[in-house]
C-alpha cells in the first residue's frame, strides 16, 4: 500500500511539473473576462483572446505561448495609439512614407542619406537639420517624412510655419499662458519650422521667436525648411542684429540637406 501511494505521488509530481498544452475549445472568451479586460482598457488583449478563441484550426498552444501572443497584441495596439496621438499633436502638413518619394529625377541626396535622417540619431544628439532648395522641390514633404519617422520613434514633435508661430508667440507674450505655451515648445524633442524666410519677421515677432530659440538652447532639435540657402537666412528677419543672433542659433550644430531638381507642384506626390 505504501509503495503504491509513493508511485502515485511521483506520477502526480511529474504531470504537474510539465507545461500542458491548451486546446482552443471555446469559440469565445467568457463574457466575465472580456468585461474585466474592457474595464482595464486592455482592448488589445481582449481582441487577441477573441481571435484565439475563433481560430478553430489553431495548433495546440502552451499557456505561455498563448499569453505571449495576447500580450504582443496589446503592446502593438498601444504603440499604434501612441503614434496616432503623437501625429495629431505634431500637426504635420503631410503624412508621407518613404515609398512616396520620387527618385526618377536628381534630388541632390541619396535614399541612404534620407533613411539615415529618418533614423533620428541627429535628434538624439540634439543637432539641427536645415532643408533648403527651390520652391516646389518637395522640402516640406521631405521634412514631414523625417518628422513622422521621429514621431514613430516615440519622440515629441511639432510642425509650424515660422512666421505663424512667431506671430502666435508675439501675441501671447503678455498673457498668463505665455510661459506655459513656451514651456511646451521648449521640451519638444523636435520643432519643425517651415517656410523660413518666406515672410520677413517684424521686430516683435522676431524677438518672440528668438526667445523660444534661446530657451530651447541645446535641449532639443530644430528642423528648418527654407527656400533660401542658409547663408541668406538673415534676410528672414528685418532687424539685422536680431537676424544675426537668430541665424546663429539655427545654424548651430546643424546638418544641411540642399534639394535639387524640378518643381514637384502638381505631381501625384510633392516629393
Task: Describe this structure as you would to a colleague.
Helix 10 links the parallel strand 5 and strand 6. About 9% of the residues have low confidence. A five-stranded parallel beta sheet has the order 4-5-6-3-7. Strands 1-2 form a two-stranded antiparallel sheet. It is globular and about 70 Å long. The protein is α/β, with parallel strands linked by helices. It has two domains: 88 residues, no CATH class; 162 residues, Rossmann fold (3-Layer(aba) Sandwich). Helix content is 50%, strand content 11%.
Secondary structure layout:
Elements: H1 2-16, E1 21-22, H2 31-39, H3 43-54, E2 61-62, H4 63-90, H5 111-119, H6 121-124, E3 128-132, H7 139-152, E4 157-161, H8 162-171, H9 178-186, E5 190-194, H10 203-216, E6 221-226, H11 240-251, E7 254-258
Parallel strand pairs: 3-6, 3-7, 4-5, 5-6
Antiparallel strand pairs: 1-2
Helix pairs in contact: 3-4, 5-7, 8-10, 10-11
What is the number of helices?
A: 11
Fraction of helical residues: 40-55%
- The total count of strands amounts to 7
Domain unit count: 2
Please, what is the average pLDDT? 82
The SSE string, one letter per element, is: HEHHEHHHEHEHHEHEHE
Detail the poorly predicted runs. 4-27
**Content-based structural category:** alpha/beta
The CATH C-level name of the largest domain is Alpha Beta
Report strand order across the widest sheet: 4-5-6-3-7
Distance between the termini: 84 Å
CATH topology of the largest domain: Rossmann fold
The CATH homologous superfamily of the largest domain: P-loop containing nucleotide triphosphate hydrolases
Rg calc: 28 Å
Using the alpha-carbon principal axes, give the shape. Answer: globular
Largest sheet features: 5 strands, parallel
- Give the DSSP E fraction (strand runs of 2 or more residues): 5-15%
Any idea what the CATH architecture of the largest domain is?
A: 3-Layer(aba) Sandwich
Amino acid at each position: 500500500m505504501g509503495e503504491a501511494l509513493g508511485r502515485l505521488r511521483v506520477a502526480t509530481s511529474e504531470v504537474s511539473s510539465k507545461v500542458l498544452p491548451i486546446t482552443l475549445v471555446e469559440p469565445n472568451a467568457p463574457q466575465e473576462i472580456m468585461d474585466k479586460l474592457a474595464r482595464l482598457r486592455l482592448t488589445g488583449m481582449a481582441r487577441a483572446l477573441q481571435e484565439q478563441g475563433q481560430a478553430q484550426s489553431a495548433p495546440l498552444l502552451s499557456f505561455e505561448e498563448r499569453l505571449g501572443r495576447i500580450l504582443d497584441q496589446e503592446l502593438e495596439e498601444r504603440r499604434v495609439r501612441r503614434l496616432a496621438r503623437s501625429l495629431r499633436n505634431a500637426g504635420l502638413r503631410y503624412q508621407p512614407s518613404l515609398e512616396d518619394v520620387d527618385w526618377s529625377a536628381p534630388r541632390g541626396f541619396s535614399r541612404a542619406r534620407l533613411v539615415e535622417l529618418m533614423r533620428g540619431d541627429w535628434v538624439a544628439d540634439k543637432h539641427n537639420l536645415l532643408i533648403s532648395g527651390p520652391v516646389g522641390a518637395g522640402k516640406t514633404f521631405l521634412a514631414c517624412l523625417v518628422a513622422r519617422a521621429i514621431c514613430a520613434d516615440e519622440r515629441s514633435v511639432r510642425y509650424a510655419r515660422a512666421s505663424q508661430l512667431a506671430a502666435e508667440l508675439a501675441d501671447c507674450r503678455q498673457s498668463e499662458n505665455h510661459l506655459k505655451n513656451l514651456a511646451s515648445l521648449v521640451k519638444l524633442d523636435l520643432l519643425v519650422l517651415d517656410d523660413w524666410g518666406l515672410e520677413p519677421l517684424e521686430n516683435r515677432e522676431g524677438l518672440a521667436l528668438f526667445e523660444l530659440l534661446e530657451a530651447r538652447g541645446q535641449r532639443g532639435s530644430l528642423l528648418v525648411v527654407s527656400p533660401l540657402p542658409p547663408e541668406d537666412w538673415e534676410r528672414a528677419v528685418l532687424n539685422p542684429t536680431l537676424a544675426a543672433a537668430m541665424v546663429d542659433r539655427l545654424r548651430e550644430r546643424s546638418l544641411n540637406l540642399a534639394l535639387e531638381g524640378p518643381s514637384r507642384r502638381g505631381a501625384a506626390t510633392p516629393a
